[in-house]
Amino acid sequence: MGRLALWAKLFRIVTLAISIGLFTYWFIKKSTIGIVKNSISLQVINKLPQPIDFYMIIVNNLDGSGTQETKHIGNIRSEYYRIEHLKMDKSDQYWVVGYLGKKNMVYFSQHAIPNKNMDQVVEVQNYINQSEKLSAQAKKKVESYNFQNIVQSIWVTLNFLLIFINVSLFWRKK
Predict the structure, then answer these.
(1) Is 41 helix (H, G, I), strand (E, B) or coil?
(2) pTM for the model
């Protein structure tokens, strides 16, 4: 084994160790529950007869940026609820968006937070769209969020495949 081959093998070992460490950190970060200090909890209760896929958009308007953060609350069955923890340092309002199927928005509501010490409860009892203009913005945000998740899942899958191939080729016998 020459000097260049030894350096190549050492580089491969270091690269594999770093990539496995980064993906382990990323996976743990994505898998943990998002309870944040000084956060409010939002409880979304689905009273409709079918499961609805809910998203939440936090409107950051207190810092002057006007950005919006999208979160997927999940698919909530009828007569069930989901709790989400919101970090509302830069915001005083959020939107709840509900989808029946992939592209059929059946629920949109805008909620202000008058007191950041009280937890929020949203009961979805009927199909409502409080604002056509804001729901169009919310629909674009949710579509962008879903597209970013698809792109991220493709990259993660390809990177896991590369890690698996490198680990399996590293341990093979010549």
Answers:
(1) strand
(2) 0.82
- How buried is residue 117: exposed, middle or buried, by Cβ count under 10 Å (0-12/13-18/19+)? exposed
137-169: per-residue pLDDT in tens? Answer: 999 999 999 999 999 999 989 988 988 888 888
pLDDT tens sequence across 38-67 = 788 889 999 999 999 999 999 887 777 778
Is-contact 85 35, C-beta < 8 A?
yes
d(CA 121, CA 119): 7
Average pLDDT value for the chain: 87
DSSP 58-107: EEE-SSS--EEEEEEEEEE-TTEEEEEEE--SS-SEEEEEEESSSS-EEE
Residue 87 burial (CB count, 10 A): 14
Are the CB atoms for 111 and 97 separated by under 8 Å? no
d(CA 91, CA 110): 13
The 10s digit of each residue's pLDDT in 6-36 is 898 889 889 889 988 998 898 888 877 666 7
100: number of Cβ within 10 Å: 15
Which two three-digit tokens encode residue 71?
């979160």
